[in-house]
Amino acid sequence: MRPHSRRVGLRAHEITFFSSGISTFKIMALAISKKEKSLPPSNGMVFYIVGTRSLQNLMMASYLKSQTGDPCIVTENVNNIPTDNPKTNGRPKLLFWDCRGNNFKSLITELRAWTMRNPSANPSVFFNVPSALKLEKKFLLEGIYGFFYENDSLDGFMKGVQTVIDGKLWLSRDMMTKFIFEGTGKDNSLKKQIENLSERQIEILALIAVGATNDEIADRLCISPHTVKSHLYRIFKKINVPNRVQAALWAAQNL
Q: N or C end of the chain, less CB within 10 A?
C-alpha cells in the first residue's frame, strides 16, 4: 500500500489513516471507543498545536481532547496563543510544535520569542521530529521537554504526553546517556558552582535530574512545595540556568 493511502472499514465505526510518522493515528469515526484507555485528569490543562491546520493536526487535537477532556487548539502562529484569555486564565499550557517541513533555525527563533512572552513553566514539546535531527541537546537547552519522532507509535506518543503533563522530560535512554557522558571535564568555574550549592540543593537537583515534580521532591525530603520553589530559585541563580529543564541537564552532566 502506498505511504499516504487510506483504508476505511477495518471495524465498525473505525477509520485508519496510513501516513508517515506520528500521523499514523487510529481515530474513531464518531467517538473514541469506550475500550480506549484515556489519560488521567491533567489538572485543567490547555493543549496548543503550533502548526498548519492540516488533517493530521486536527485529528491529533481531537484525539487529545477525547483522551483528556481538555481543550486542544491548532494555531499556525504561536503569537495567536493568548496569555490573558479569561477562559484559560491560570490554566497550564502544553505546546506541541510541529516540526514537519519546518526550518529549525526559525523554530528556535519562535521558541525564544514565545519563552520571552511567557516566562512561566508551561512546557513545550516537538513532534514529527526527523530521526536524524541531531539537535536535541540544543533544543533541550532552549527549554523543550521532549521529542516525538516521525515513526513513534500512538501508544508511545500518549505515554510521552502523560510524562510531560507530570512535569518530567520525555527523552530516550540513549539520548540522556549521551548527554550525561558529554558532560566530562569539569573546569574550575564548574567546581566553584558545585561548592556553592548546599547539601539540600544538591539533593533537589539530583531529584530534578530524574524527573521528579515539586510535590514529589517535597514529599521525598519532607519539606513544603513552597520551600522547594525557593530552593529552585536559588539553585537557578547559582548554576546560571534559566529554567528547570536546563537545571536537570546540568545536574545529569555534573553531579
A: N
Other beta carbons within 10 angstroms of residue 17's beta carbon come to: 17
- 186-214: pLDDT as tens digits: 555 666 677 788 888 888 988 888 788 89
Same domain, 133 and 233: no
Task: Give a yes or no: residue 1 inside a domain.
Answer: no
167 and 193 part of one domain:
no
| DSSP assignment of 205-235 | HHHHHTT--HHHHHHHHT--HHHHHHHHHHH
> With 0-12 CB in 10 A as exposed, 13-18 as middle and 19+ as buried, what is 32?
middle
Helix (H, G, I), strand (E, B) or coil at 50: strand
138 is a domain residue: yes
Exposed e or buried b per residue across 107-117, where buried means at least 16 C-beta atoms within 10 angstroms of its C-beta: beebbeebbee
Each residue of 44-81: pLDDT tens digit? 789 999 999 999 999 999 999 988 889 999 999 888 88
Q: What is the pTM of this model?
A: 0.60
* 207 and 124 in a common domain: no
Cβ neighbours of residue 25 under 8 Å, at least 6 residues apart? 17, 56, 59, 60, 63, 154
The answer on 203 and 139 residing in a single domain is no
65, amino acid identity: K
Phi-psi region of 134 (alpha: psi -120 to 50; beta: other; left: phi over 0): left
Q: Where are the beta strands (DSSP E) in the chain?
A: 6-8, 14-17, 26-28, 46-50, 72-75, 93-98, 124-129, 144-149
Residue 61's H or E segment, with its range, is helix 55-68
Full domain range(s) for residue 249: 180-254
